[in-house]
UniProtKB/TrEMBL annotation:
Pfam family, one: Adenine_glyco
Highest taxon above the source species: Bacteria
Name this protein carries in UniProt: DNA-3-methyladenine glycosylase I
Gene coding for it: tag1
Protein backbone atom coordinates (compact mmCIF):
# COMPACT_ATOMS: atom_id res chain seq x y z
CA UNK A 1 0.00 0.00 0.00
CA UNK A 2 1.24 3.47 -0.89
CA UNK A 3 0.89 5.94 1.98
CA UNK A 4 1.57 9.59 2.69
CA UNK A 5 5.29 10.08 3.44
CA UNK A 6 4.63 11.14 7.05
CA UNK A 7 2.88 7.82 7.73
CA UNK A 8 5.83 5.66 6.67
CA UNK A 9 8.04 6.40 9.68
CA UNK A 10 6.58 3.96 12.24
CA UNK A 11 3.99 1.19 12.38
CA UNK A 12 1.94 3.36 14.78
CA UNK A 13 1.78 6.17 12.21
CA UNK A 14 0.89 3.69 9.46
CA UNK A 15 -2.00 2.29 11.47
CA UNK A 16 -3.28 5.77 12.35
CA UNK A 17 -3.05 6.82 8.70
CA UNK A 18 -4.72 3.66 7.38
CA UNK A 19 -7.51 3.32 9.95
CA UNK A 20 -8.39 6.79 11.23
CA UNK A 21 -6.78 9.80 9.64
CA UNK A 22 -9.12 11.41 7.16
CA UNK A 23 -12.14 9.26 7.99
CA UNK A 24 -15.13 11.63 8.18
CA UNK A 25 -16.46 12.20 11.69
CA UNK A 26 -20.04 13.36 12.12
CA UNK A 27 -20.60 13.52 15.87
CA UNK A 28 -19.81 16.34 18.25
CA UNK A 29 -17.98 13.89 20.48
CA UNK A 30 -15.85 12.46 17.68
CA UNK A 31 -14.96 15.90 16.35
CA UNK A 32 -14.18 17.30 19.78
CA UNK A 33 -11.87 14.39 20.54
CA UNK A 34 -9.96 15.00 17.31
CA UNK A 35 -9.71 18.71 18.08
CA UNK A 36 -8.46 18.01 21.60
CA UNK A 37 -5.94 15.53 20.23
CA UNK A 38 -4.72 18.10 17.68
CA UNK A 39 -4.32 20.70 20.44
CA UNK A 40 -2.12 18.30 22.39
CA UNK A 41 -0.25 17.32 19.23
CA UNK A 42 0.62 20.91 18.21
CA UNK A 43 4.38 21.39 18.25
CA UNK A 44 5.07 17.74 19.06
CA UNK A 45 5.77 14.62 17.06
CA UNK A 46 2.55 12.91 15.99
CA UNK A 47 4.16 9.57 16.79
CA UNK A 48 4.90 10.70 20.37
CA UNK A 49 1.31 11.83 20.88
CA UNK A 50 -0.03 8.57 19.43
CA UNK A 51 2.30 6.69 21.78
CA UNK A 52 0.65 8.45 24.74
CA UNK A 53 -2.82 8.53 23.28
CA UNK A 54 -4.50 5.85 25.41
CA UNK A 55 -3.14 7.35 28.62
CA UNK A 56 -4.14 10.82 27.46
CA UNK A 57 -7.66 9.62 26.62
CA UNK A 58 -8.02 7.94 30.00
CA UNK A 59 -6.72 10.98 31.91
CA UNK A 60 -9.08 13.25 29.93
CA UNK A 61 -12.15 11.02 30.36
CA UNK A 62 -12.06 10.06 26.65
CA UNK A 63 -12.39 13.74 25.74
CA UNK A 64 -16.04 13.47 26.84
CA UNK A 65 -17.33 17.02 26.41
CA UNK A 66 -19.61 17.25 29.44
CA UNK A 67 -17.11 15.64 31.80
CA UNK A 68 -14.25 17.84 30.59
CA UNK A 69 -16.41 20.94 30.89
CA UNK A 70 -16.82 20.09 34.57
CA UNK A 71 -13.18 19.12 35.17
CA UNK A 72 -12.25 20.07 38.73
CA UNK A 73 -9.07 21.71 39.97
CA UNK A 74 -8.14 18.38 41.58
CA UNK A 75 -8.58 16.54 38.28
CA UNK A 76 -6.35 19.12 36.61
CA UNK A 77 -3.67 18.67 39.30
CA UNK A 78 -3.88 14.90 38.94
CA UNK A 79 -3.45 15.22 35.19
CA UNK A 80 -0.43 17.52 35.51
CA UNK A 81 1.33 15.14 37.91
CA UNK A 82 0.78 12.06 35.71
CA UNK A 83 4.13 11.24 34.04
CA UNK A 84 2.42 9.11 31.36
CA UNK A 85 0.57 12.01 29.72
CA UNK A 86 1.69 15.15 27.94
CA UNK A 87 1.88 17.46 30.95
CA UNK A 88 1.22 20.85 29.42
CA UNK A 89 -0.96 23.07 31.56
CA UNK A 90 -1.81 25.50 28.74
CA UNK A 91 -2.99 22.69 26.46
CA UNK A 92 -4.95 21.09 29.29
CA UNK A 93 -6.64 24.38 30.17
CA UNK A 94 -7.39 25.00 26.49
CA UNK A 95 -9.10 21.61 26.07
CA UNK A 96 -11.19 22.19 29.22
CA UNK A 97 -12.09 25.72 28.13
CA UNK A 98 -12.96 24.48 24.64
CA UNK A 99 -15.16 21.71 26.08
CA UNK A 100 -17.17 24.41 27.85
CA UNK A 101 -17.45 26.53 24.70
CA UNK A 102 -18.33 23.46 22.57
CA UNK A 103 -20.97 22.53 25.13
CA UNK A 104 -22.43 26.05 24.89
CA UNK A 105 -22.69 25.67 21.11
CA UNK A 106 -24.60 22.41 21.56
CA UNK A 107 -27.29 24.29 23.46
CA UNK A 108 -28.10 26.43 20.41
CA UNK A 109 -29.88 23.59 18.60
CA UNK A 110 -27.46 23.52 15.65
CA UNK A 111 -24.66 21.26 16.88
CA UNK A 112 -21.01 22.08 16.26
CA UNK A 113 -20.81 19.01 13.99
CA UNK A 114 -23.79 20.24 11.95
CA UNK A 115 -22.30 23.73 11.77
CA UNK A 116 -18.95 22.42 10.55
CA UNK A 117 -20.42 20.11 7.90
CA UNK A 118 -22.73 22.90 6.71
CA UNK A 119 -19.74 25.25 6.48
CA UNK A 120 -17.85 22.60 4.52
CA UNK A 121 -20.76 22.41 2.05
CA UNK A 122 -20.80 26.20 1.69
CA UNK A 123 -17.05 26.34 1.06
CA UNK A 124 -17.34 23.72 -1.68
CA UNK A 125 -20.13 25.75 -3.28
CA UNK A 126 -18.09 28.98 -3.28
CA UNK A 127 -14.67 27.64 -4.19
CA UNK A 128 -15.52 27.42 -7.89
CA UNK A 129 -16.08 31.19 -7.93
CA UNK A 130 -12.88 32.04 -6.06
CA UNK A 131 -9.20 31.60 -6.82
CA UNK A 132 -8.44 29.69 -3.61
CA UNK A 133 -8.42 26.02 -2.75
CA UNK A 134 -11.30 24.46 -0.86
CA UNK A 135 -8.90 23.54 1.96
CA UNK A 136 -7.57 27.10 2.28
CA UNK A 137 -11.04 28.61 2.28
CA UNK A 138 -12.45 26.03 4.68
CA UNK A 139 -9.46 26.37 7.04
CA UNK A 140 -9.94 30.14 7.18
CA UNK A 141 -13.70 29.90 7.64
CA UNK A 142 -13.38 27.21 10.33
CA UNK A 143 -10.73 29.22 12.17
CA UNK A 144 -13.11 32.21 12.19
CA UNK A 145 -16.01 30.01 13.33
CA UNK A 146 -13.94 28.60 16.19
CA UNK A 147 -12.91 32.11 17.13
CA UNK A 148 -16.58 33.18 17.23
CA UNK A 149 -17.27 30.26 19.58
CA UNK A 150 -14.44 31.45 21.83
CA UNK A 151 -12.19 28.41 21.31
CA UNK A 152 -8.52 28.82 22.17
CA UNK A 153 -5.24 27.31 20.90
CA UNK A 154 -6.82 26.59 17.53
CA UNK A 155 -4.68 28.57 15.12
CA UNK A 156 -4.67 27.98 11.37
CA UNK A 157 -2.18 25.07 11.49
CA UNK A 158 -4.14 23.23 14.20
CA UNK A 159 -7.39 23.87 12.33
CA UNK A 160 -5.89 22.58 9.08
CA UNK A 161 -4.73 19.34 10.72
CA UNK A 162 -8.07 18.98 12.48
CA UNK A 163 -9.95 19.31 9.17
CA UNK A 164 -7.71 16.73 7.54
CA UNK A 165 -7.87 14.28 10.45
CA UNK A 166 -11.66 14.61 10.74
CA UNK A 167 -12.23 13.99 7.03
CA UNK A 168 -13.50 17.43 6.06
CA UNK A 169 -10.79 17.82 3.42
CA UNK A 170 -8.57 15.32 1.66
CA UNK A 171 -5.11 15.81 3.10
CA UNK A 172 -3.61 12.67 1.56
CA UNK A 173 -0.71 13.07 -0.82
CA UNK A 174 -1.47 12.48 -4.49
CA UNK A 175 0.61 9.27 -4.60
CA UNK A 176 -1.16 7.83 -1.53
CA UNK A 177 -3.64 5.03 -2.20
CA UNK A 178 -6.18 6.79 0.01
CA UNK A 179 -6.00 10.05 -1.98
CA UNK A 180 -8.45 8.96 -4.66
CA UNK A 181 -10.59 6.83 -2.36
CA UNK A 182 -11.22 9.28 0.46
CA UNK A 183 -14.85 10.26 0.89
CA UNK A 184 -15.28 13.81 2.06
CA UNK A 185 -18.31 14.07 4.24
CA UNK A 186 -22.00 13.96 3.42
CA UNK A 187 -21.79 16.79 0.90
CA UNK A 188 -19.05 15.40 -1.36
Amino acid sequence: MKRCAWAMKTPRLQQYHDDEWGVPQYTDQGLFEILGFEIFQAGLSLDLVLQRRLTLQKALVNFEIDQLAGFSEQQQRNFLTNPAVIRNQQKLEAVIHNARRWQAQQLHGFSPADQLWFLQQQCHAYVDRLSVSTEDLFTEQTWQLFDSWGLVRVGPATVQWFLRAAGFVNGHEANCDRFENQMIGPYH
